[in-house]
Amino acid sequence: MKYSIPLYFILFISIITIINVNSAKKPPKKPTTKEKKIWKPLKVPLNGTLVTKLGKKGVDYYNKQHNKTLIYINVTSGERCGHLSSKNKKIRVTVLVGKTSNGKKGSTSCNHLRAVFNVTKKGGEKIILVKLLKTNVTGNCNIKGKDKASQKTTKKPTTKKNSKGKKN
Fold first, then answer.
1. C-alpha to C-alpha distances, 7 to 13, 16, 31, nearest whole angstrom
2. Is the pLDDT of residue 146 over 90?
3. Where along the chain is composition biased (Basic residues) (predicted)?
């Protein structure tokens, strides 16, 4: 009996120290606010070789990953983000693709495919993300003839500045 009291006391103190050590948590880290990069339009034309190559590469990558095969039609928009010197330049390309339906022969529906690439100084393009957007495109989706008139994207009209001075 006289030896059991110090044993209980030592056991009680060890349990209290274990509880205190486990309850002492590190202070939570403050969340860092990262600035979101702004996507700016590409300076190169959308029907240029670089943009069409990226669009076809994105469609091929999607076809390898999924069972549904898509057919490349044209690039509808292209945007860039970041700087090439800091090794984090990204190019986002939205591609108009045709998806053939299994039910009817020859009937196709148009969708948009978005592909994001990481571009390096040496000219390498690495695919980061490829996804099929859920929007259906209205209008004629003629893949064989590639009817560009019905598939053109609308751009904002530019106003020409008058070179003549103001007349009073």
1. 10, 14, 47
2. no
3. 153-168
Query: Could you tell me the residue ranges of all domains in the chain?
Result: 40-144
CATH fold for domain 40-144: Nuclear Transport Factor 2; Chain: A, (3.10.450)
**What CA–CA distance (Å, rounded) separates 166 from 59?**
52
Whose tokens are 């259906």? That residue is: 136
Cβ proximity of 130 and 115 under 8 Å:
yes
**What 8-state DSSP symbol labels residue 57?**
H
Q: Please report which confidence band the pLDDT of residue 75 belongs to, taking 50, 70 and 90 as the band edges.
A: very high
**Contact in structure between 123 and 91 (CB atoms under 8 Å):** no
Q: Give 59's contacts (C-beta < 8 A, 6+ positions apart).
A: 70, 71, 72, 95, 97, 113, 115
| pLDDT above 70 (res 86) | no
Position 70 pLDDT exceeds 80: yes
User: Structure pTM?
Assistant: 0.60
